[in-house]
Write a structure and sequence with these properties.
mainly alpha; 0% strand; 60% helix
Length: 345
């Protein structure tokens, strides 16, 4: 009777104990499930927000990867100028670069090279000396070696170039310059190893190969020199220019005269057995150790810009301007196009 009265009055009966426990268990499981999803709501990123942030970061990474590095582009431009022999212009642009982007090791090396090639000897020397630490040491040593060689100080040049070689034993440019400095110092035997290494390391480097030909000529091996010069005088591919031209040969002849004088003063020569071994079985000429002319069988080579059928046939001049008698067949500038030509030391 009392139960009916409570119902009529709109009162809900109290739940049974088992029903209460079941409801609490369900609520606990629901809360545990929410907790397993990690923090959500105000102050915590949602899953969608995290995905958007990751996408934004990936976009920024892609933009950075494709962004143009203006400083590096400028350095590349200066490098091209130096490869083309535009040393005065490159010096001006090096200063402009450092004003705009600040000084770094690469710009300092470029500046030192430009100072050396514009005749500012003491400034170049100081610039190289300041770079004899860290990653720039080898290139600074080479620059010092070339600087000393330009002043006729071949002993100091050899010392610096050999230190550069020790730091980078497979740099064909350094090896070639070291060999040439030995030759200018009248030491053919000392030049043999570095020039042989450079020639095999860089078979497509015309300046290195011209130094190799100079070594063969200076050591009396005309047969080997003639074979190499014929190869260099032929285009390596259809439509390509030959690696050397008449200017290259004229410079080579002038350098041969300089090396001949140096060897005579020092009284040094390459032993016949060493020359034969280096030539891989090539016959050594029975003529004097230092022939006075280039091999007569050398084929004419085309002048730059002319067709193969319009080859120059004039003989090499007996005398050459005094201004080129102290030039070195440098490996720099390494990227210059066309046939190899000597650069002032």
């Amino acid at each position: 009777m009392r139960h009916q009265e409570n119902t009529r009055a709109g009162r809900t009966p109290a739940p049974a104990p088992l029903a209460t426990l079941a409801a609490l268990a369900t609520l606990a499981l629901a809360l545990a499930g929410c907790a397993s999803k990690g923090p959500q709501g105000y102050g915590a990123p949602s899953a969608q927000q995290e995905t958007a942030a990751q996408a934004q970061q990936q976009l920024q990474n892609a933009q950075q990867a494709t962004q143009v590095d203006n400083a590096q582009t400028y350095l590349d431009l200066i490098t091209q100028m130096q490869q083309a022999g535009q040393w005065y212009a490159s010096l001006a642009h090096t200063e402009a670069f450092e004003q705009q982007y600040g000084v770094n090791q690469e710009s300092r090396l470029m500046r030192a090279d430009a100072l050396r090639n514009t005749g500012q000897v003491e400034q170049a020397r100081q610039a190289y000396l300041a770079l004899l630490q860290g990653a720039t040491t080898a290139r600074a040593r080479r620059g010092l070696g070339l600087l000393y060689a330009s002043q006729g100080q071949y002993g100091q040049a050899v010392e610096q170039l050999d230190k550069a070689r020790q730091l980078n034993p497979i740099d064909a440019n350094v090896l070639s310059d070291l060999a040439y400095a030995h030759m200018l110092d009248g030491r053919l035997a000392a030049a043999q190893m570095p020039i042989m290494q450079a020639s095999q390391l860089a078979p497509a480097n015309a300046r290195v190969q011209l130094n190799m030909a100079l070594f063969w000529l200076a050591s009396g091996n005309q047969a080997q020199a003639s074979q190499l010069l014929r190869q260099l005088a032929q285009p390596q591919a259809k439509g390509a220019l030959p690696m050397i031209d008449q200017t290259s040969l004229q410079t080579l002849q002038a350098q041969l005269a300089s090396v001949r004088d140096a060897v005579r003063l020092r009284g040094d020569s390459l032993p016949a057995e060493a020359s034969a071994g280096a030539g891989a079985g090539a016959a050594v000429s029975s003529a004097p150790v230092l022939p006075s002319v280039l091999p007569p069988a050398l084929p004419p080579v085309p002048t730059l810009g002319t067709r193969p059928e319009a080859r120059a046939t004039e003989a090499l001049p007996e005398t050459l301007p005094a201004g080129i008698t102290r030039r070195i067949l440098l490996s720099e500038p390494p990227g210059a196009a066309g046939a190899a030509a000597a650069s002032p030391l």
